[in-house]
Amino acid sequence: MLAKVRTFSLLGVEAREVDVEVDVAAGLPSFQIVGLPDAAVRESRERVRAAIQNSGFQFPQERITASLAPADLRKAGPGFDLAIAAALLVANEQLPPEALAGCALAAELALDGTVRAVPGSLAMAEQAAATGVERIVVASESAYEASLPQAINGAGPARVIPIDRLTDLARINGEDEPAFAMAPVHLGAPDDAPGPDLADLRGQPALREALEVAAAGGHGMLILGPPGAGKSLAARRLPSIMPPLARDEAVDVLRIASACGRAPAGTVQRPFRAPHHTVSPAGLVGGGNPPRAGEVTLAHRGVLFLDELGEFARNSLEALRQPLEDGAVTITRVRHSLSLPCRFLLVAASNPCPCGHGEGTAQCRCAPGAARRYRSRISGALADRIDIAISVEQPGPEALAGEPGESSAAVRARVAAARELAERRQGCPNAELSLAAARRHAKLTPEARAELLQGHRRMGLSGRGHDRVLRVARTLADLRGSERTDADDIAGALAFRRRGAE
């Protein structure tokens, strides 16, 4: 007696198809799972046994072998429970084979037969549709996630079947088959949900301008200044001036959130991640065994905020260099290589010295050379990959007591217009332009070329710095609505690169 059903294994944020084959043969009672299972998958034997018995089915007292194919793909997590139990019931003739025809199953089983949700239901639903599976059976708590691809862009399976208990498998393909009605998904602007507004930032006109440029072009930025200057306040309001997610971006964000067990409900917003400075390199960029997404991937299409940048471990910061350049993290293991997306907007904030007041001020209590050692924790290679650097000071009492600044909605309108120009011209934000594309789309005036040449010589820019100045200048031109990049745009981009060193 042999039965076969389909399920999925989550690898990073992607799902891989797995065939579960169960053979029930005469022999001494035993239950073996083969196919590179991890400890959680091996423990499925006890969960499946108890769930079948406590659901009123008969557990066969024969030799049972469950094979998870492909055999060379490592299987991790409890998401194979439901598929193994279903195949076992079909092999033992307690469920008809046609009941699960054309279905994929992915869920964990409790000992009493209750079906539990597992991470990655959205990615599994996408993979099910890509491999021709018309229906996917999941826990009721996962039905919303599994139906998101179909609701957003029609890329999911035709039918999502939510179940609560193992006995519900008998209802599939019947008149009372469980069904899930998907509510519309709203890709809303940040002001559709309550949150911080840029109007709260007072007395920092240069910082407000830098935030607008960063949001319009997707440029990373570094904010230097003493405590209380508004660095964290500004960074936490950056998502509120970024345009709403496009449909493909929303699916990416939801897929990552689902794979990490935190898929949102309702309005889909750009993520904002602010890891603590004690985060490890694997926690920041991803890793582990099995590989898991790090903070840079969780911030995909959103903002990654590193507060007190000088307090982060040097090896954690250096791990950011390749993700910032490529927009993806590649994790290589003996049996496979995994690529995790991480197109994020980096915002870093740092004090000018350990005490925070700044070398040369009357309030500074640092020992000689302490400020230089503090700043040297940020390597030149990493600083070269940050497009905008700006120094700020504490605002005066008059500014703090004055009228609120421009609202997030007003700034976001200009940002969205600039982003639209860039998307029509090149199909991506300016920060993501390749070297050749940046030079092709810059469209420098003769005066701008002369200004860039002088600035390059005056500031001693690296080749990467030169190209990043071009990208920022292109964003400044887009904010003006201009097709050409003029000398003022180049001067502004050079100033953004110089201010952090002042």
How would you sum up this structure, described in words?
With 502 residues, this protein is α/β, with parallel strands linked by helices. It folds into 3 domains: 2-171, 2-Layer Sandwich (Ribosomal Protein S5, domain 2); 190-428, P-loop containing nucleotide triphosphate hydrolases (Rossmann fold, 3-Layer(aba) Sandwich), CATH 3.40.50.300; 433-502, no CATH class. The chain has helices at 39-42, 44-54, 81-91, 121-130, 143-153, 205-217, 231-236, 247-259, 281-285, 295-298, 314-318, 321-326, 370-375, 380-383, 397-401, 408-426, 435-442, 446-459, 463-480, 487-499; strands at 2-11, 14-25, 30-34, 63-69, 103-106, 108-109, 115-116, 135-139, 159-163, 221-224, 272-273, 303-306, 328-332, 337-341, 345-350, 388-391. Strands 11-12-15-10-16 form a 5-stranded parallel β-sheet. Strands 1-2-4-3 form a 4-stranded mixed β-sheet. Helix 5 (143-153) runs antiparallel to helix 8 and helix 6 runs parallel beside helix 16. The longest helix has 19 residues, at 408-426. The mean pLDDT is 89.
